[in-house]
């Protein structure tokens, strides 16, 4: 039986649904990839009013304190001096479940931070894992569909999950983390956070350095075993929400140490593994953690809907001195996150108090639903203009150019040897203690062994695990086949 052609909404046949169009194998995504834009824009509008992902979350206000000098890497004023404090808001969440789902499901946790700086809002939108399941944003709608509900039964479907994973070997690193002990934290307070993506820093001289952000829980790492999590899901499905709120309410303020890894552009060019692949970590031996500061959450929201549900984050929200990288997943998220908030909360979502910058903002945007700030009054709404009091561009704030090398086209994500899918998952498995390995295998067997998952998918997935580590593959084969 011949399979029908995949087509765009206008009927054009899609030539590549696996790889977005990029400038070179590792280059940034091109806006001319209209199918990618259509796919992400349609995906962002599939559900309303709750978030498409990260629907259930908890949040609190706090403060970032700088404890180390990193001005040699960035001109961002938030890091201009040791001891500087910046107000912030944090939101933690599960990824795949709905607003009413249980907190203690096996799922990555969102780790979203908004810093209210004097230069505008800076958002760092990451997870409690240093890597992700996919490396190209064109696969994000497909991946999330597998984490949601079967369109016929409206039930979570292990077959969908493992059918996708077994054909996406780049997911192996994240899958092993998800099914390890760290797959279910004890609460939001007892987990690390990561930018996951590679970003860049720009200093006063215009020099670029690539950076990964780490947020290390000062409460330590504590996790739930599968049976403990299942029991809590029934007895207290809002365990995480209750834990965060009550700890802050009684003055037990959670803290996270802020640290970075730094890589020069020359080092990035010479890396054996692609440093812009979000399914990879940078080895700490080569790129050690550098302390930046810490943040503390010390104030609960006055109203959950007002501050947590209406909180809108986007990695596109940066400030001078903090910038992007050619990371393909990040490039897609720069569009998708801002776009989904415009759809979910409206074009004027930044006027909501939790999203509003604490600095003055001048621009020419007008109208739209829920415009409540005077709409610019009688000021001109176009530029260039001859009004000396109107806002004007400042060329000194242009970011320096980032080198791009390669022709625009679809590049197979498996052609680049720097995108190796098996090395780091294998190393992660071999770092585990024997009891951790046993629990990992047990967790994988419980999910992959579901009756709905055909043997063909099981065999394909086991072979991927075997390529990571022969022992892991054998244990799973012995239990499942």
UniProtKB/TrEMBL annotation:
Its cofactor is heme. It catalyses: 2 H2O2 = O2 + 2 H2O. Residues 384-393 have a biased composition (Polar residues). The active site is at residues 54, 127. Residues 1-20, 384-405 are annotated as: Disordered. One of its GO terms (biological process) is response to hydrogen peroxide. Residues 7-391 form the Catalase core domain. Decomposes hydrogen peroxide into water and oxygen; serves to protect cells from the toxic effects of hydrogen peroxide. Belongs to the catalase family. This is Catalase. It comes from Zymomonas mobilis subsp. mobilis (strain ATCC 31821 / ZM4 / CP4). The lineage of its organism: Bacteria, Pseudomonadati, Pseudomonadota, Alphaproteobacteria, Sphingomonadales.
């Amino acid at each position: 039986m011949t399979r029908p052609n995949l087509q765009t909404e206008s009927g054009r046949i899609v030539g590549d649904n696996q790889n977005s169009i990029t400038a070179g194998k590792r280059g940034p995504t091109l806006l001319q990839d209209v199918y990618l834009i259509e796919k992400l824009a349609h995906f962002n509008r599939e559900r309303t009013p709750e978030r498409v992902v990260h629907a259930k979350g908890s949040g609190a206000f706090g403060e970032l304190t700088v404890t180390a000098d990193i001005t040699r890497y960035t001109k961002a004023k938030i890091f201009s001096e040791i001891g500087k404090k910046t107000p912030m808001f944090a939101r933690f969440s599960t990824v795949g479940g709905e607003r009413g789902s249980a907190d203690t499901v096996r799922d990555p946790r969102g780790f979203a931070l908004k810093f209210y700086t004097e230069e505008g809002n800076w958002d760092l939108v990451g997870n409690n894992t240093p890597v992700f399941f996919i490396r190209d944003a064109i696969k994000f709608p497909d991946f999330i569909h597998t984490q949601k509900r079967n369109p016929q039964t409206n039930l979570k479907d292990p077959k969908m999950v493992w059918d996708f994973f077994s054909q996406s070997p780049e997911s192996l690193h994240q899958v092993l983390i998800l099914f390890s002990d760290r797959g279910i934290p004890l609460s939001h307070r007892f987990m690390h956070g990561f930018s996951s993506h590679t970003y860049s820093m720009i200093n006063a001289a215009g020099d670029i350095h690539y950076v990964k952000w780490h947020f290390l829980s000062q409460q330590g790492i504590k996790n739930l075993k599968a049976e403990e999590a299942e029991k809590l899901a029934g007895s207290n499905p809002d365990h995480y929400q209750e834990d965060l709120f009550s700890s802050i309410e009684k003055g037990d303020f959670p803290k996270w140490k802020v640290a970075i890894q730094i890589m020069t552009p020359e080092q990035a060019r010479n890396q054996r593994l692609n440093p812009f692949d979000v399914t990879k970590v940078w080895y700490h031996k080569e790129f050690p953690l550098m302390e930046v500061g810490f943040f503390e959450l010390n104030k609960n929201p006055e109203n959950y809907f007002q501050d947590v549900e209406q909180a809108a984050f986007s990695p596109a929200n940066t400030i001078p001195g903090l910038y992007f990288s050619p990371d393909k997943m990040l490039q897609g998220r720069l569009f998708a996150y801002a776009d989904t908030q415009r759809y979910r909360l409206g074009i004027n979502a930044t006027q909501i108090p939790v999203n509003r910058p604490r600095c003055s903002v001048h621009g020419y945007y007008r109208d739209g639903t829920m415009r409540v700030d005077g709409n610019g009054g009688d000021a001109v709404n176009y530029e260039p203009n001859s009004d000396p009091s109107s806002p004007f561009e400042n060329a000194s704030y242009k970011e320096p150019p980032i080198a791009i090398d390669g022709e625009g086209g679809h590049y197979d994500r498996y052609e680049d040897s720097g995108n190796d899918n098996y090395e780091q998952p294998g190393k992660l498995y071999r770092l585990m203690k024997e009891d951790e390995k046993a629990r990992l295998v047990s967790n994988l067997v419980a999910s992959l062994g579901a009756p709905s998952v055909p043997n063909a998918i099981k065999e394909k997935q086991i072979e991927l695990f075997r390529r990571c580590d022969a022992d892991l593959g054998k244990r799973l084969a012995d239990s499942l086949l």
